[in-house]
Amino acid sequence: MITMKLKYVCPFCFAEHAIGDVEFACDSRMICAQRDPSGKIVGVPGAGEPDKKMQEYKHLSQAPLGPHHFRAHKTPKFSMPDSAVCDWCRQVSRTRVCPSCHNTLPSTIDNDEAMIISLIGTRGSGKSTYVGVLIHEMMKHLFGPFHGTFQLYGSEDQREYRTRFEDYLYKGQPIPQTTTHLTGNTMTENRPILGMLKMQSSGFFGKVKPKMLVFFDSAGEDWTNMDTIQVVAKYVAKSSGIVFLIDPLANQHVRDAISDDASIRASISADYEPDSDPTKVINDVARLIRDQNGLKESQKIAIPVAAAFSKLDVLEDKNLLPPGGRLSQPSPHVQRGMFDDTDADSVNQEVRSMLDRWDYGSFINTLDMNYATNHCFAFSAYGREPASDGTIAPPIPKRIEDAMFWLLHLNKVL
Ligand SMILES: Nc1nc2c(ncn2[C@@H]2O[C@H](COP(=O)(O)OP(=O)(O)OP(=O)(O)O)[C@@H](O)[C@H]2O)c(=O)[nH]1
Ligand SMILES: [Mg+2]
Ligand SMILES: [Zn+2]
Ligand SMILES: [Zn+2]
Fold it and tell me: What's the domain of life for this entry (predicted)?
């Protein structure tokens, strides 16, 4: 099937553009300099050009120096030009950038729909830990049996992943609370992390199918503040999938069942306040998506939602899982080299019964009434409880892949 893309969404600023609306960055910035119409160099070679768009995107006080930006001579209507000649130095550039923020666009932007995965959940529910461990596992273990690979996309993604996630999680420390910096109506922190999933399709002539995955880690505080919530909503409304995390330790029944306080304290953020209720958040998200996408109250939202209990390790240690259930067993998908529907269905049932038992009936109802495609999961990113001093051993996650695999399965990637 050939589908023509007429629009694209920038994975960095989430602005939507017509497919031909793209700028180029000069690759040879070292020698590139502004010339007058006769060709005489008037600028300083190698000095670069102050980048107002990048300044705005990063909320810097001064415009940083960047390469010269320009457009293709002719702008096609139904496709994206893949190269253009620099009007300063006459060199051909293939570096396409977003006209709104000047970030370099992924090379697949014009022929493939990127999958934006949004992480939502109340403060301290485990979103950042989840993304951090999930990406690590996706790079190292998860796609081998599927004849696939996953890699972080560019050097910026690698740097962001290392400094925001890996340097904590794989060096014994929990990730600090995610914060938002809202200035005007764009957000500066929380640049999405891009990764490329490549799958060998089956059959002798199987082609390699690349798929760009964009992970957007929201801050828990985004969902309690009316100003930030409007901005995050724009990102979330364009998602191909939502992973909604529920913190079992925010639940009173669970807390009552866990008598030893030390284990709760190690698994919640220092400045934890049980201020936000997941039912309210999932309901707010639905309302905002409807507003953004022009849906009526009676229409269900098509974006699939994976609602997942985090911190499964605590539930397991404190004997709070259904006895003999699937949740006590390892995830079978990687082992089997295929998505195991039967396992996923049992997990969904078990988690729903736990939600019901713990007075989250209204959460289930809100989920079912608003989201046409939803599924419940449970996972542990660490795989074991943190030490009482708060340090963590290298994560050996449990069932961290389930929700992601379900989303990829729905998107026909797995
Ligand atoms: N026991 C246990 N604790 C976890 C796990 N994942 C996260 N935590 C703890 O939960 C707390 C919050 O984790 P984060 O990943 O920062 O949560 P978040 O949702 O990103 O929080 P905000 O950025 O504040 O919204 C930290 O104290 C973590 O140590 C897990 O798998 N098991
Ligand atoms: Mg966070
Ligand atoms: Zn952009
Ligand atoms: Zn140039």
Answer: Bacteria
